[in-house]
Amino acid sequence: MFKYEMMFIVRPDLEEANIKAVGESMKTLVEEKGAKVVELKEMGQRELAYTIKNYKNGYYFLIVAECENDEAVNEFDRVSLINEDVLRHLVVRVDE
Fold first, then answer.
1. Are the CB atoms for 22 and 85 separated by under 8 Å?
2. Residue 86: beta bridge partners?
3. CA-based R_g, the chain, Å
4. Which residue positions in the chain have pLDDT lower than 70?
5. What is the DSSP secondary-structure string of 31-77?
6. pLDDT tens across 58-70, in order?
């Protein structure tokens, strides 16, 4: 089993319910591809280091997941690139 940290930033101009829905949908996506989600952490709204798509702030999420293969990670990456509500994302494999 490999452990991954998947962080993504959601647009801040969405309503709070929609922001949380994006976080839950990303969690569900990872779970459907066979990964075990250890933690979904809402880190809240923070100022970005630089402007991304004319936004100076973003709502941060962190998903910690364990999976046997890269299928869940690849799907997370693919959907994050397509989803217009996600400004940026990052996937890191954590060494034990």
1. yes
2. 10
3. 13
4. 96
5. HHTT-EEEEEEEEEEEEEEEEETTEEEEEEEEEEEEESSSHHHHHHH
6. 999 999 999 988 8
